[in-house]
Write a structure and sequence with these properties.
One of its GO terms (cellular component) is chloroplast. Keywords: Multifunctional enzyme, NADP, Oxidoreductase. Pathway: Cofactor biosynthesis; riboflavin biosynthesis; 5-amino-6-(D-ribitylamino)uracil from GTP: step 3/4. One of its GO terms (molecular function) is 5-amino-6-(5-phosphoribosylamino)uracil reductase activity. This protein folds into three domains: 4-164, Cytidine Deaminase, domain 2 (3-Layer(aba) Sandwich); 174-356 and 367-385, 3-Layer(aba) Sandwich (Dihydrofolate Reductase, subunit A), CATH 3.40.430; 394-578, Tetracycline Repressor, domain 2 (Orthogonal Bundle). Helix content is 37%, strand content 16%. It is built from 19 helices and 18 strands. The chain has helices at residues 4-7, 24-34, 71-79, 102-109, 129-136, 152-164, 166-174, 204-215, 224-230, 279-287, 300-309, 321-329, 394-408, 453-460, 468-478, 483-496, 505-523, 525-532, 560-592, and strands at 48-53, 56-62, 87-90, 114-117, 141-143, 178-186, 219-223, 245-249, 269-274, 291-295, 314-317, 335-341, 369-376, 379-385, 417-420, 438-441, 447-450, 538-541. Strands 10-9-8-7-11-6-12-14-13 form a nine-stranded mixed sheet, with helices on both faces. Strands 2-1-3-4-5 form a five-stranded mixed sheet, sandwiched between helices. Helix 17 packs across helix 19.
Length: 593
């Protein structure tokens, strides 16, 4: 993910000559705070909101994770009565999940004078919807680059809004995860000695930066050479927070049997290989909890296509030159982060960070854009883009996008198979991570609010167990800051203390989930309508690694979450038909009378 502080964005609001009608500092502040959850949760759309009267800020907020309270709601709550007549500045058009209109309600009820938006939502099924809804409520909405088009500094502010959501833009426009290539090299361009020894090229300060950048990623990729030579762990070296998936690319599977990456107690590992390579060793890894994915032909582009399908937004490549060269050549690398240590090691055979690209003249060299420099300890950090972050051009593509939006709108005839996974997907509201709290009475009849279905489900694993640790864990899950954290708390404790799981949990969990789903879809009319609109379609939870609730990567999973949603849909249709029948009878009786 992109960070203003750590990646030195070249936007200097303090010295900018900004047109009076565009208080750029407020949008830049929205951009900055939008990045506040980086490393703490999985990558997601970065949204920040600042509410201000002129230069005076009265409220602000940011989206912490998928399924949490929106930036706009937080900003309005903090501004309170001071929001009347103020202007709201958003780096991204509201829209995290279909059926969640809390952001729009907050902005509408805040009595604002204006809303200024830095970037329309890149995802087609969300793009422009919030802007239209706000304008329909009589609120003046201005979008940078459309309604506000004057001033050189406006371009810099727009660029900042694009860069902070570069992963989302890449996913929407290029249908690829945002990929960052990281390496550390000596002053003479070596990443290791000619023996392969590489600990440590860079300083401890630089390594801490690497750990933080890993936490901003959905996945970290290395090749087989790195596993054999360095035996890395690829963790973030922090307690709590987001842990990316570790991916090993190896065509021949000649990997060490006892690598650190095969320990998946705290972070998952995927080995990606050619079909049929060392099947016995594959089975050994699977038995240890490592996921193995076979490709007909393993390439960086094939891996990125897979990561896109898996819902990844941001991927970090920490591979050696043998893998980095084909990754660059295939066009999947967007950004380069290079740490240059003030060391010289020499050696003709010492490896360099990028292998053979087939270039024979310096004029063929790939030039980076938006280059920035920063010192980290004794090292120099150089960052830049190998390919531009895609931009949205509404004046050119508005008609096409409108047609696509109409085609993709959930109210149209649904496809035969509907899949969902991330909350920002077209049918992402079906996810247990969606931002829809449910209220459930406890044993004493008191209403208890759970911030998501995931919170409730994970809490019920240990509910009623008379043990202080179980009671404590339920409370922690209930107040978890995000569904992601609730899931992590429930799953990890279930593995550590299976003896504290609710008795007969395996027999109860389907009923627990169905109860939660029914409460969710009957409490929110928009969700109920969305579910009913899928009548005739098969609903599939597209989790690639959950074979119980989801369909799994190959479709061999049980898809129990999808099955429960279809069961609920059938019941809601019958109830709706029953209510209509009762109404017809009542109307008939009234006419007869």
């Amino acid at each position: 993910m992109f960070s203003l502080s750590s990646h030195a964005l070249c936007v200097r609001a303090s010295t900018a000559q900004v047109p009076a009608q565009i208080p750029a500092q407020h949008i830049l502040k929205a951009v900055k705070i939008a990045d506040s959850s980086a490393g703490l949760t999985a990558p997601h759309p970065n949204a920040g909101c600042v509410i201000a009267h002129g230069p005076r800020v009265v409220g602000e907020g940011f989206l912490y994770a998928q399924g949490t309270k929106s930036a706009e709601v937080q900003a309005v709550e903090r501004a309170r009565d001071l929001s009347k007549g103020a202007t709201a500045y958003l780096n991204l058009e509201p829209g995290d999940c279909h059926g969640d209109d809390s952001a729009l309600k907050a902005l509408t009820q805040a009595n604002l004078s204006k809303v200024i938006i830095g970037l329309r939502h890149p995802l087609t099924h969300l793009r422009g919807k919030a802007i239209e809804a706000l304008r329909a409520e009589g609120i003046t909405v201005e979008v940078l680059g459309e309604d506000l088009i004057e001033g050189e500094q406006l371009q810099e502010v727009t660029r900042a809004c694009q860069l902070i959501n570069a992963p989302l833009l890449c996913r929407a426009v290029q249908r690829l995860p945002y990929s960052v290539l990281k390496y550390a090299m000596t002053l003479d361009g070596k990443i290791a000695a000619n023996t392969g020894h590489a600990a440590w090229v860079s300083s401890s300060e630089s390594r801490r930066r690497v750990f933080a950048t890993r936490g901003r990623s959905d996945a970290v990729i290395v090749g087989g050479n790195t596993v054999r030579r360095d035996n890395p762990r690829l963790t973030t070296r922090q307690d709590g927070g987001h842990l990316p998936v570790r991916i090993v690319m190896s065509r021949c599977m000649t990997l060490p049997p006892d690598a650190n990456l095969w320990n998946v107690a705290n972070a998952p590992t995927i080995v990606m290989t050619q079909r049929g390579a060392r099947r016995e060793f594959q089975a050994q890894l699977v038995a240890r909890g490592v996921e193995v994915v076979e490709f007909d032909f393993l390439t960086p582009k094939a891996v990125m296509d897979y990561c896109f399908d898996r819902g990844f937004l941001s991927v970090m490549w920490e591979c050696g030159g043998t893998l980095s060269a084909p990754a660059i050549a295939s066009g999947v690398i967007h950004k380069v982060i290079a740490f240059v240590a003030p060391k010289i090691i020499g050696g003709v055979l010492a490896p360099s960070p990028v292998g053979e690209l087939g270039m024979v003249e310096m004029t063929q060299a790939l030039n980076l854009s938006d280059v920035a420099f920063e010192q980290t300890g004794p090292d120099m950090l150089i960052t830049g883009y190998l390919q531009p972050v895609p931009a949205l051009y509404p004046s050119v593509s508005a008609a096409v996008e409108l047609a696509l939006a109409d085609y993709l709108t959930p109210s149209t005839k649904p496809p035969a198979v509907i899949t969902f996974y991330k909350t920002w997907d077209l049918y992402g509201a079906f996810s247990n991570f969606s931002p829809h709290p449910i209220t459930v009475p406890d044993e004493d009849g008191n209403d208890v609010v759970w911030n998501s279905v995931e919170h409730y489900y994970q809490g019920q694993k240990f509910r009623g167990v008379q043990d202080s640790l179980a009671i404590e864990r339920v409370l922690k899950i209930q107040v978890a800051a995000s569904p992601e954290e609730a899931a992590r708390l429930g799953r990890s404790f279930g593995r550590e203390r299976p003896d504290l799981l609710c008795p007969d949990w395996d027999e109860k969990k389907l009923d627990v989930m169905y109860k939660a789903l029914r409460l969710k879809f009957t409490s929110y009319e928009a969700l109920k309508e969305l579910l009913l609109s899928t009548a005739g379609s098969v609903i599939v939870e597209a989790s690639p690694n959950d074979l119980f609730w989801g369909a799994g990567r190959t479709g061999a999973g049980q898809n129990n979450l999808g099955i429960l949603l279809m069961k609920l849909r059938t019941e809601l249709i019958k109830e709706s038909e029953g209510n209509q029948s009762v109404k017809r009878q009542a109307d008939s009786a009234a006419v007869t009378a």
